[in-house]
Design a protein that fits this description.
Elements (H helix, E strand, L loop, with lengths): L2 E10 L2 E9 L8 E6 L8 E7 L2 H4 L8 H15 L2 E5 L2 H4 L1 H12 L5 H7 L10 H9 L4 E5 L3 H8 L4 E6 L10 H9 L19 E2 L2
Helix pairs in contact: 4-5
Length: 210
């Protein structure tokens, strides 16, 4: 079971957050994390982003995906509105950075993101969001507004003991390099992406779920 191993206030470009590390034991060098806006009101539905690690997009600003921009937009949103980012260490849809770079190499030869994973003998998406539910339970979160375009995350919350109040889209403009990636997200994984001219990451709109 996950446990809180450490926590501290961390000032960022978007504001100051309480960052909490979760792992089964303190020797885990890659814990999951909760990034909590300090003015979050836990008596109301909490804005939550479940975000999987993407070192290429977040650290090196890769244009092949929108992951880094999604994280930036989520941090800005929760600082302004309160909330939590649950940061899961699931690099490359949980195939790891080495396999991710191997998949990138295949994409250079014309394979899309799913085809590249399958050619490597890997799942199209091997992520598991159960630990995000566990983290939210540890933090005492009962009711959330979920910042996501991913129907699997929505279903994960609906199948849990946490109430999903509404979905908040988190749309990012595509680049020439990320266009195919986003098309696979929409057409293969069923992500709830909207037309390019309607996308606005800075001002997400909300969709009630019940």
């Amino acid at each position: 079971m996950l446990q809180i191993q450490a926590e501290a206030n961390v000032p960022t470009d978007y504001g100051s957050f309480r960052i909490i590390a979760f792992a089964e034991n303190e020797s885990d060098w890659m814990p999951h994390m909760a990034i909590v806006a300090q003015h979050t009101d836990f008596t109301k539905p909490v804005n939550v982003r479940i975000h999987s690690e993407c070192i290429t997009g977040e650290v090196f600003h890769s244009r092949k995906c929108e992951c880094g921009q999604q994280l930036d937009a989520a941090m800005k949103y929760i600082e302004e509105n309160g909330g939590i980012i649950v940061y899961l260490r699931q690099e490359g849809r949980n195939i790891g950075i080495i396999n991710k770079l191997r998949a990138y190499s295949l994409q250079e030869k014309g394979f899309d993101t799913v085809e590249a994973n399958v050619k490597l003998g890997l799942p199209a998406d091997d992520r598991d969001f159960n630990e995000a539910i566990e983290i939210l339970n540890i933090l005492g979160v009962k009711d959330i507004n979920l910042l996501t375009n991913n129907p699997e995350k929505l279903q994960g919350i609906k199948s849990s003991n946490i109430h999903l109040n509404k979905r908040i889209p988190l749309q990012i403009h595509s680049t020439e390099e990320s266009k195919g990636y986003l098309e696979v997200k929409k057409n293969f994984f069923g992500h709830l992406l909207i037309d390019e001219d309607a996308k606005n990451a800075d001002h997400p709109s909300a969709e009630k779920t019940d």
